[in-house]
Amino acid sequence: MSLLMVNDWVEFKTFKEMLGLSDGNLASHIKTLEAEKYIQVKKQFVGKKPKTSYATTAKGKKAFNDHLDALEALLKRR
Description:
Elements: H1 2-5, E1 10-11, H2 12-19, H3 23-35, E2 39-46, E3 49-56, H4 58-77
Antiparallel strand pairs: 1-3, 2-3
């Protein structure tokens, strides 16, 4: 999610390279985020090659920011 918070759209290949994940592992994470409606998916062809990109939704941005707020609150308790 942090990659998506600072980029409008991120391609599957970029996610894979940046996170060092396998196709299957990354697909599992994406599937979960998509099921929660935290991300949106754009599938298209560039020439004859498929290109899949992802972006955060408003719900995903709120969930991510809520998560950061919860982490900050935990850190402040110490």
